[in-house]
């Protein structure tokens, strides 16, 4: 007989609980934030997210909602902090709304490829409580790293380019290695300045694209073609103008200077004397031979 009151009490409690759960306020959440953020390497950007809450269902319970905000699925090269990350939202009335603003600090901890979007999600959630339904809302935010000018390197290996000697009338082809240290592909155009009229310098190729380490081989070998027309010394400054591959202007440059000496081959005097002696001896020998031959024919 004691079991019956217990069952009745349990059923009543469950009924009340179920009824109460149907009276919980459902809070709708909208997030307004700049979801395309451009950021420089080793820097921080701060954006503001406006979060709007509104509800329209009746509840017999006066309530307060605990709001939690976090960043999820954050790329390894980013650090995201949110302030405030929690707050209390008073919920009252048949129809209501409220707005809160939070600061999102996005900081880079590494360098990644330029202009490639990465994303994380802003997660705003309200746990279930008396009179409040559990709610989860996500907003995706894209973060893109800007072009980082780390420069390009120009090297001429295995050649003493400070004292380069070339014979007049000959053409020298020298390898120059260009390395892209930037975080994006760069287009390069080579030019030479401070060169005298006695020298001709060209490049094979002259215009080209070098990938970054993130997208391919970041080195390019170029031939420097040097042709001296007269003997003498000369100086040349090679300039590599470069910019991000999708940019319209060449915003950066990297120089390397070379010193050159054109050598005119000297005539070997000793060889000329030897050739002259041999030639003279041959002429004398031929003359003597012809003279003797003429005497024999006269007899």
Proportion of β residues? Answer: over 45%
What's the mean pLDDT score?
84
Radius of gyration (Å): 42 Å
**Uncertain runs:** 10-21
What shape does the CA trace take? rod-shaped
Tally the structural domains. Answer: 2
Largest sheet: 5 strands, mixed
CATH topology of the largest domain: Immunoglobulin-like
Written description of the protein model:
With 299 residues, the protein is of the alpha+beta class. It has two domains: 24-145, Immunoglobulin-like (Sandwich), CATH 2.60.40; 152-263, Sandwich (Immunoglobulin-like), CATH 2.60.40. The protein has two helices and 18 strands. It has helices at 3-22, 269-298; strands at residues 28-32, 36-39, 44-55, 63-72, 78-83, 86-91, 96-108, 118-126, 135-145, 152-155, 164-167, 172-180, 186-193, 199-204, 207-210, 219-228, 232-244, 252-263. β8 (118-126) and β9 (135-145) form a beta hairpin. The protein starts with a helix and ends with a helix.
């Amino acid at each position: 007989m004691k079991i019956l009151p217990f069952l009745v009490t349990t059923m009543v409690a469950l009924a009340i609980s179920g009824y109460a759960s149907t009276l919980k306020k459902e809070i709708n959440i909208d997030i307004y934030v700049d979801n395309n953020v451009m950021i420089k390497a080793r820097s921080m950007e701060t954006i503001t997210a406006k979060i709007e809450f509104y509800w329209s269902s009746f509840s017999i319970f006066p309530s307060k909602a605990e709001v939690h905000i976090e960043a999820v699925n954050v790329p390894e090269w980013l650090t995201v902090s949110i302030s405030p990350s929690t707050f209390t939202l008073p919920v009252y009335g048949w129809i209501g709304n409220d707005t809160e603003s939070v600061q999102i600090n996005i900081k880079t901890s590494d360098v990644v490829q330029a202009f490639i979007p990465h994303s994380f999600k802003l997660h705003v959630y309200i746990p279930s409580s008396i009179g409040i339904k559990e709610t989860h809302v996500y907003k995706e935010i894209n973060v893109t790293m800007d072009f980082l000018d780390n420069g390009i390197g120009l090297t001429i290996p295995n050649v003493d380019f400070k004292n380069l000697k070339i014979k007049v009338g000959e053409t020298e082809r020298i390898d120059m290695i260009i390395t892209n240290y930037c975080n994006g592909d760069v287009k390069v155009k080579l030019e030479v300045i401070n060169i005298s009229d006695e020298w001709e310098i060209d490049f094979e190729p002259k215009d080209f694209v070098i990938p970054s380490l993130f997208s391919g081989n970041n080195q390019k070998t170029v031939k420097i073609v040097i042709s001296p027309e007269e003997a003498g010394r000369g100086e040349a400054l090679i300039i590599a103008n470069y910019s991000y591959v999708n940019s319209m202007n060449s915003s950066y440059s990297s120089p390397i200077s070379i010193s050159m000496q054109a050598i005119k081959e000297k005539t070997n005097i000793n060889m000329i004397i030897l050739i002259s002696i041999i030639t003279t001896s041959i002429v004398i020998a031929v003359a003597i031979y012809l003279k003797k031959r003429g005497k024999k024919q006269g007899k």
